[in-house]
Specification:
It contains no helices and ten strands. By secondary structure, the protein is mainly beta. The strands form two sheets. Strands 1-10-9-8-7 form a five-stranded antiparallel β-sheet, with no helix packed on it. A five-stranded antiparallel β-sheet has the order 2-6-5-4-3, with no helix packed on it.
Amino acid sequence: MRLAFLFLTAFAGPAAAQEIMPCDWQASAQSIVESWDENSRTFANGDVRLTNLDTIEPAVGFAYLMVQSPPYDELGGRQCAVVGAAAGIGFAGLEFDSLTAGYDPVVGLIFEVIVNVYDPDTDTAPRRFLNATLNQSTGEMIATVTADNS
């Protein structure tokens, strides 16, 4: 199955690109945060599923967001991706209950969830917004993190 993943570079404003990678060890059923029904939500008539993952380690990058979505492969399986903070590391926290979703016919599904991103310079994990878009037709996903301006 062909997965179309885009990695954004920094653009105007305080946003940073996030790592979007094919499902691997992070997407193990063992990593799904309990209770499963409260940490997994479906959208687009059940075609798209977002799931909260906790890999336990590393402590500053244990949290990932798993996205299962069209397009479907020749056997009917959805593409599967995990979104993390950077190459090989997740977020320092993910508030799944803050997940909101919308739809824009130009870009597709739009998701926002609160995350914490570890900053090694300050040894803190400030609260940020993970913003992601998903085009179900192409499978293209884009994810960025922006500062919490509230």
